[in-house]
Amino acid sequence: MAPLPISSIGVGKIDDVQELIKSKPNKVPERFIREANERGVLVSHKTHLHHHIPVVDLSKLSKPHTDDDFLFEILKLSQACEDWGFFQVINHGIEVGVVEDIEKVAKEFFEMPLEEKKKYPMEPGTVQGYGQAFIFSEDQKLDWCNMFALGVHPPSIRNPKLWPSKPARFSENLEGYSKEIRKLCKRLLKYIAISLDLKEERFEEMFGEAVQAVRMNYYPPCSRPDLVMGLSPHSDGSALTVLQQSKNSRVGLQILKDNTWVPVQPLPNALVINIGDTIEVLTNGKYKSVEHRAVTNRERERLTIVTFYAPNYEVKIEPMGELVDDETNPCKYRSYNHGDYSYHYVSNKLQGKKSLDFAKILN
Ligand code: OGA
Ligand code: NI
């Protein structure tokens, strides 16, 4: 989440979705209604029983590296990253209390009166604070979602004015949660390196002081989920993304697999992990950053807490030499500075995998 120096861009009136449904529960303003080909119908997961994102058991990856369980799970991980770009992790070792505590304060935050949340505004052209990100024009359609985003690590990317004083334990819980998610990301990157036949520390050494940001997405119920989009289709600019979905919420996340939107049915106590654009580039496209989106439903709100983990802005990104072969696997992406990619990502609207065009070598 690189800072954006754009000072005043015309974005038109952005309605706060939670306020909208309070005053007119059955009305969907024009600016939220998508073109027919962009609408997010909620496919029943029953029609996709054959289509479940892979599950990786981290307890098996804690075993000695020569153990059959370890090797089998690494294989599963590598297939998940190649074929899906998405997987769920179970037995990740993060205490239930930590997960519940962040969910509690996030929910309390969104339930506060608008005046309170407005003390932490996401100014047009910036990506931290409360509001809607990625809006750059007056005619751009809006997502059926309220967001609260914060830079977390390193401390230099924080905007302390945006860390809320209410709910009381918000900052404390976010700190605790972020530490755990950071450890998880470092662990996952080790396993991902092993799955690619690379040295365990390969990513950690390359990434330097990794950048970590969090975005909380609150999707209120919608009287016409068939007309709107919760979150526009996109891939993530991160290296890895960790998504936590509030307990008992409806399925909302969908990923594009073989040209079909496949719903992700979260498992209890699991976290959803996805490969971001950065790992796609580093692996020369072997591991995929897959397009995904969120849809809404009529009955119940849905809350997700999403962590983006990425290299330091200074780091040069390009396909790793080990994974490029001029004859059989030529280099597909150019070399760039991660900070430049971050800036490019946040200064454009979400539009499928379009942001990766920045890095592609087009023949
Ligand atoms: C995101 C994201 C999906 C969701 O925040 O990048 O993909 O279900 N969220 O909230
Ligand atoms: Ni995403």
Automatic annotation (TrEMBL):
Q: Which UniProt keywords apply?
A: Iron, Metal-binding, Oxidoreductase
Gene3D superfamilies, A to Z:
B-lactam Antibiotic, Isopenicillin N Synthase, Chain
Fe2OG dioxygenase domain span: 202-311
Q: Name one Pfam family in it.
A: DIOX_N
One GO MF term on file is: metal ion binding
Key word Calcium present: no
- Which InterPro entries would you find in this protein's record? DIOX_N (IPR026992), IPNS-like_FE2OG_OXY (IPR044861), IPNS-like_sf (IPR027443), Oxoglu/Fe-dep_dioxygenase_dom (IPR005123), Plant_2OG-oxidoreductases (IPR050295)
Instruction: Spell out the family assignment given in the record's similarity comment.
Output: Belongs to the iron/ascorbate-dependent oxidoreductase family.
Q: What is this protein called?
A: Fe2OG dioxygenase domain-containing protein
